[in-house]
Write a structure and sequence with these properties.
- The protein has about 300 residues and is mainly α.
- About 65% of the residues lie in helices and about 0% in strands.
Length: about 300
């Protein structure tokens, strides 16, 4: 006997029979219960090689993502820069739309078709100039590198060159279907109706692949990040200033007032240059990827 009354026996651990307390992905709930967190969904298993090929066959947009997005596993991707690039692209499209709606006639279907055709021609011209500048910039970058880096960059350039070939190949299907010259006309006569059905299906697939591919090529600069992370901002800056120079030479948007035209012409290259310099700065400061180190100097 003591000064305190006898204490009750301790409560045994609660839980499922045969399983210790706290078993499972979550700890035991506190006294009194309460809402429990949901169980995590099981991760979807990655697609096999055959499944990826099959998905590319029936989904041209997935095929474009596989062809034109960088895929090097150890590549550095700065999400902040990517978000700013998306904002810049959206603001550029909005500025172009305001310019068109203010100074170009789009009140008829013919006017709207002409505006859409102009925009597609501009995007396609940008892609073609990027294709032309691409080998020279890659060659300069690779041969400016030292020793083993030169061979590494040349080996990594196979996928970007493959992206160029894929885009050119997809655009080549349209002349086969509609070109009036005797050679392609004879080809269409030779394949007959079954071949024309296949050709039309191929052109439809190529249309989605090419349109989405052009957008991805301009955004990811022909997946040159697979070679090195400093190449996309350099190529994007070169392309922006070349396109602005061509607009000046071609006297594009001549009906727009001079001040608005100057702002519109300089807005794209200046914003691209500033963003590219900022991206190179972030690569150097936060990811230890300066241009000199990329060249092995």
């Amino acid at each position: 006997m003591g000064p305190y009354p006898p204490q009750p026996a301790p409560v045994p651990p609660q839980g499922f029979p045969g399983r210790p307390q706290g078993w499972g992905p979550y700890p035991s709930p506190p006294h009194g219960g309460g809402p429990q967190p949901p169980f995590p969904r099981p991760l979807r298993p990655p697609l096999t090689r055959g499944q990826r090929i099959l998905k590319c066959v029936y989904n041209p947009f997935y095929a474009a993502q596989r062809a034109f997005r960088p895929s090097r596993p150890d590549a550095v991707e700065d999400l902040t820069v990517r978000k700013i690039q998306m904002w810049r692209t959206g603001l550029g499209a909005a500025a172009w739309l305001v310019l068109v709606m203010s100074y170009k006639p789009v009140d008829t279907a013919k006017g709207a078709d002409a505006v859409a055709s102009d925009k597609f021609d501009q995007s396609w011209t940008s892609t073609l100039f990027l294709v032309c500048a691409f080998p020279f910039v890659i060659a300069l970058f690779a041969f400016a590198a030292q020793g083993a880096l030169r061979r590494l960059y040349l080996r990594r350039s196979l996928k970007p060159f493959g992206a160029v070939a894929a885009l050119m190949g997809s655009m080549a299907t349209f002349p086969l279907a509609v070109a009036p010259d005797p050679a392609t006309t004879g080809f269409r006569d030779a394949i007959g109706i079954p071949g024309m059905v296949v050709l039309i299906v191929l052109c439809t697939w190529s249309l989605g692949f090419a349109l989405y591919g052009i957008a991805l090529c301009l955004n990811h600069v022909f997946r040159t990040a697979d070679i090195h992370e400093v190449l996309p901002p350099v190529l994007a800056t070169v392309l922006a200033w070349v396109m602005a120079t061509l607009d000046v030479i071609d006297n594009a948007n001549a009906e727009v007032p001079v001040l608005a035209r100057v702002v519109f012409l300089l807005g794209a290259p200046v914003s691209v240059t500033v963003l590219s310099c900022w991206e190179l700065y972030r690569l150097r400061k936060y990811h230890n990827l300066p241009l000199r180190q990329a060249l092995g100097r």
